[in-house]
Amino acid sequence: MPDSQPRRPDDNAPDSADAATTADHPALVLGGARLADGRTVDVRLSGSRIEAVGTAGSLSTRGPRIDLRGYLLLPAPAEPHAHSDTALTADSAGPDSPGPASHRAEDIQRRATEAALLQLGHGATALRTHVRV
After folding, report:
1. How far apart are the first and last CA of the chain?
2. With 60 as the cut, is the pLDDT of residue 99 above it?
3. How many CA atoms lie within 13 A of 44 on its CB side?
4. Which string of DSSP letters, residue by residue, matches the chain?
5. Of 41, 49, 42, which is closest to residue 12 (Cα–Cα)?
6. Mean pLDDT of 101-107
7. How far, in Å, CA of 124 to CA of 75, rounded?
8. Which domains does the chain have, with CATH numbers?
9. What are phi and psi of 66, to 5 degrees?
10. Residue 100: pLDDT band with limits 50, 70, 90
């Protein structure tokens, strides 16, 4: 089920990716993390999902536990304004550049993919893009 589809709290049917992960790895608890509203919580992760959130020290697991006391736990950031068609072309405008950026479809696709992977590498899980067509 895609992340954009809500699940009922009692729906424990794992996705195929979740089933493979949970069969090999026990749940992970992020312990004592501070949220933006000031609460301190434990978060139990199972597969690719948040399984439970509770007050600090309330969640147990047979798996690993990471102590996040002193750390702020935030949701993944989103990039609200990007231009995928001109991504990674800033260096092509300078006096020392080899020339203007290529606007061939395969070059635009390569740059857009590289830019999206850079965003993902910095933690962004959503990207809104503007493209001139």
Report:
1. 32
2. yes
3. 18
4. --TTS---TT-----HHHHHHHHHS--EEEEEEEPTTS-EEEEEEETTEEEEEEETT----SS-EEE-TT-B--PPPEEEEE-GGGTT-GGGGSTTSSSSPP--HHHHHHHHHHHHHHHHHTT--EEEE----
5. 49
6. 86
7. 9
8. 1-75 (2.30.40), 78-129 (no CATH)
9. -110, 125
10. confident
The pTM of this model reads 0.55
The two three-digit tokens of residue 47, written as one number: 């597969």
Place of tokens 């067509």: 133
| Residue 46, token pair as written in the block | 């199972």
Non-local (6+) Cβ contacts of 7 within 8 A are: 1
The answer to whether residues 64 and 25 touch, using CB atoms and an 8 Å cutoff, is no
